[in-house]
Design brief:
six-stranded antiparallel sheet, Aminoglycoside 3'-phosphotransferase, Chain: A, domain 2, globular, alpha+beta, five-stranded antiparallel sheet, about 20% strand, about 40% helix, 2 domains
Amino acid sequence: MNSFEVRLSTRTVAQSIPAQAWIQFLVRQRWFSGKGRTITSVQVTATCVVDSALVVAVLRVIYEVGEDEDYLLPLLLCVDCPGEAIGQIEGRPVVDALSVEEGWRRLLEAFGRSQHPGDLELRIELESNFSFRKGEFVMGSTDQTNSWAIVGGMFVKVYRRLQHGENLDVEVCRFLTRAEFPLTPVLRGSITARGAFGEATLLSVQDLIPNQGTGWDLACKQVSAVVNGQEVDSKPWEELGVSLAKLHRVLASPEGPGTSALNTPDLKAWAQLALALARNVLTELDGAKLDPACSGLAQVLRFRTSNLLRRIKAPQIPSGVCHRQRVHGDIHLGQVLWNGDKFFIIDFEGEPARPVEERRRKYSVAKDVAGVLRSFDYAARAGLPEGAGAKGEAIANQWRNRSRSAFRSAYEREIGGEPFLPNDPALSDQLIALFELEKAFYELRYELSHRPDWVGIPMAGLLDLTNAKKPV
């Protein structure tokens, strides 16, 4: 792939590619969060020239309702571009730089320079004596909120949506790296973009964690195996409980964000937020176009709505019995890596649909515990082999319950008598149940917006939760 000397100023980029071309590109991207909203315009508000063929642009997307979002988008000028070009600049095709290997490598060469011209400034930050290594390239999955690749044995992540301030993933990983916590990625470097908007993290570089796949991969394999009559080991899920407990302990340490007492107003506020989310999602469900099977689930869910909403209430936990702290915020089986012996925990951005300020707040660790418990339910449904039938579903549900129990028991053993959860098992169950319900409604909203084919999974989970006497 050849490149050319072209003037890549903000004005040039803005004038060369029309708004409609940006819109057509954005709506096809998995990481674009504006699907379902009407875009009125897209504006290029700032750029930074990395080299003669690569520019990092800030795209401001303006919606019909008066809202807007900013995205950081590396753009590469090329010839013989693989895939469809977004548009042209001075007659040269321009593509998303992260769709091709050359774009990744050119972007990472920014670590070797201290100055990058433009009205967008790139600031380089390195941990320890890191120097970027060239080597094998592996493109990451496109079915992600962010983009990633493995380059020279390092894991490189680019944060697509511009979030003001330092990205939470980098913030938390830096703390855990300096704390020498062994079960999360080691942060090696980051690039921050500075402009009129302030600062935002563009990318991070972490040590690659050798692994056999995610917890989701392992869980789906186990579901398929048990449905086909094979035995599986619950030991990995015990290890997951231990890993999460150790993470919570280091995040609660005085050297980190620390802890605050969990009081009644906190519980009431969380219950109110969960109830508001549930009502909003049920309203969205009423207007959604569903296939016949999901339409049937939706009708049953509407019939049980009052029962479900009554379950969303603040537990009567005395103030100060346990604490709140920084948590992962979006942990599930896809956010953990299994190496055959233990789990490593990754991706500390929190739930992408929530405001950054909300994700940075201190919560009960029950939020993370509930996230993993919900993920077992997802895997039990998504991992079912074709034609498993009612018998297969029953076997998968048994696997789910055993796995949930193994995980939670190991977590609670590792935490011991420390005030992470209430010592009273009934109160602990109620607290986890509150966050499970909230998570299930969050999942339903996410699937309605991004994966309509999966809408049935959180709906079925919500129906199970209306029947549950207590969490497993």
